[in-house]
Amino acid sequence: MIAKTPSPPYYAVIFTSIRTEADKDYQQTDEKMFELATHQDGFLGVEAVAGIAVSYWKDLESIKKWKENTEHSEAQKRGKTEWYKSYKTRICKVERDYDFNK
Predict the structure, then answer these.
(1) Domains plus CATH for the chain?
(2) What pairs with residue 90 in β-bridges?
(3) pTM over 0.85, yes/no
């Protein structure tokens, strides 16, 4: 599903990862993080496919607060110790967007 974002500017957090074989509650935690993020001030939406998630945020302060969220921080720790071989996070300012719909 394509996130419905407002007119730019806004921010995108691009998270790419390579998973380990371990699944220890990964799916449940992922779903919980999505639910938490939807209630986080400044959250605009998310798009995800295997190994890549792009979340959209109103501003850099909103991204910072999400990173500091206690439950999100705990999930990040588990990600490093259990779920990911490697990952990279990129934060970008969206200055322009356009779309096509049939």
Answers:
(1) 10-94 (3.30.70.100)
(2) 14
(3) yes
